[in-house]
Amino acid sequence: MAIDTDKNSYTVIFSIVMVVVVGSILAGLASGLKPLVDANKRFEKQQNILYAMGINANEGTSDVAFISTDEVEDKFESTITKQYVIEGTEASENSEAYLIDIKKEEAKAKDPNYKRKLPLFEGEKDGEPIYVIPIRGKGLWDAIWGFVAVDKSMTVQGVFFDHAGETPGLGAEIKQRYFMDDFEGESLFDESGAFKGITVAKGNADPKNERKTDNAVDAIAGATITGDGITAMIKKDLKMYVPYFKTLK
Amino acid sequence: MGLLSKKDSKLIMDPLADNNPITIQVLGICSALAITAQLKPSIVMAISVMFVMGVGNVVISLMRNIIPSKIRIIVQLVVVATLVIIVDQVLKAYAYSLSKELSVFIGLIITNCIIMGRFEAFALANGTWRSFLDGIGNALGYGVILIIVGFFRELLGSGTLFGFKVLGDSVEKTGLYAIGYENNGFMVLPPMALIVVGIIIWVQRSRNKELIED
Q1: How far is residue B102's CA from residue B99's CA, in Å, rounded to a whole number?
Q2: How much is the average pLDDT of A95-119?
Q3: I need a labelling partner for A12 at 20 to 30 A (CA). Which of B24, B127, B157, B161 fits?
Q4: Nearest CA of chain A to the CA of B8: how many Å?
């Protein structure tokens, strides 16, 4: 018996069956693979944090090289001695601070009564404590984010930037070594001790990056808006940590 | 006579050369321009498209007698979308850094005109085995162009192949760079992919005059 595939009732039943079948296949697959996907995201974050602290596989290459995903979890646990959640000047230890979603916190902070939770990671490098601060902002097309490693006096020890969709060859270059390495040693305060951030400055400002106290690094040509985004997110997000760092001195 | 009959092997060979989806039918250009800056994503993209087209053509062909013709385009879309999500999820779970690199373009396989084109033009009217061959053939034709473009763009744009520095180190000035060679930064940008595809089309048509339209 041939089915009359032109009948309306047949079309409706066909669509319903199709949706149910496809829906269950995809739902099953997604929940089956979720642990693996989540682990990958966690590893990536750990790699980024460690990268900013200078723990990476950069030696002998000019590219950005993370430590391998196999060892990142152990390395993260042994390097990051403490994780804090800061509210105001109060810091409380919380071993899952790295799971805080800054994007969500930022949205919640629009409510003036909400006390924003700020994650902070403490590790040790050459016997000195070193702190990693996650930051997030806007580039030209989409979100940009990063991790800034600073010492007790908030002098930058290393950074890592990433982006969701900046222009390849221009804004996307913020995740290249030649740009990120410039931040090392820059101070976030001006000479009088006021918070100033770090400006991604145009106009061939200090291209060899010899002056470490000028609060500026050289911009990437053709990536003005992405660079401004970096300046803005450093200023905005790191500033929130200043009260806490003042208590460390 | 080999594994395939003459008619069947034509299904594989035609899209590779005289009926190539990219250079002759000019379909699927968007992804060919976007992800071919390096060889590795080009190959992963080619394999993903091959999976989606092979399996998709088989599924559509199996269902060709029960698909209501009124909603056949929607059914085709659902099949592509399902397969693409499967590819995306598997890449996210097992090849995370690659899936980050390909980012939105895996999702955009859905809009790859070659796939819907083959579903509509071939799988709806042909048997399962022939549809499978047709899907693989067209995906191969697409993949070959992707790999050729990716090869030249990575070699001339970054001086590397699969990330290996085949021309020497551009920072340390070794190999070719020692005698003043410079990477062509333009090759990394999508417009150059269009020009490379154009050159392939030119070469192909000058070798086979029958392909030139009036």
Answers
A1: 5
A2: 78
A3: B127
A4: 29
In a domain, B10, yes or no: no
Tell me if B131 is assigned to some domain.
yes
- CB proximity under 8 Å: A 165-194 to B: 165, 168-169
Q: How far apart are CA B60 and CA B67, in angstroms?
A: 9
Q: Domain residues for B168?
A: 24-203
Helix (H) or strand (E) holding A163: strand A156-163
Q: pLDDT tens digits for A206-245?
A: 666 666 677 888 888 888 899 999 999 999 888 888 888 8
Residue A127 clears pLDDT 50, i.e. is over it? yes
Q: What is the pLDDT of residue B147?
A: 92
pLDDT tens-digit series, residues A48-86: 888 888 888 777 666 778 888 778 888 888 888 888 888
Find residues 49-88 of chain A whose CB sits inside 8 Å of chain B.
62
- Asked if residue B110 is part of any domain, the answer here is yes
Decide if B14 contacts B137 (C-beta within 8 A).
Answer: yes
CB of B85 less than 8 A from some CB of A: yes
Question: Nearest CA of chain B to the CA of A29: how many Å?
Answer: 7
Q: Look at strands A216-218 and A199-201 and give their pairing.
A: parallel
- Spatial contact of B150 and B42, defined as CB atoms under 8 Å apart: yes
**Within a domain: residue B98?**
yes
Give how far Cα A67 sits from Cα of A128, A149, A198, B63, Å. 22, 17, 27, 48
Which residues have CB under 8 Å from B88's CB, separation 6+? Answer: B99, B106, B107
Domain total in chain B: 1
Chain B CB within 8 Å of residue A222 CB: no
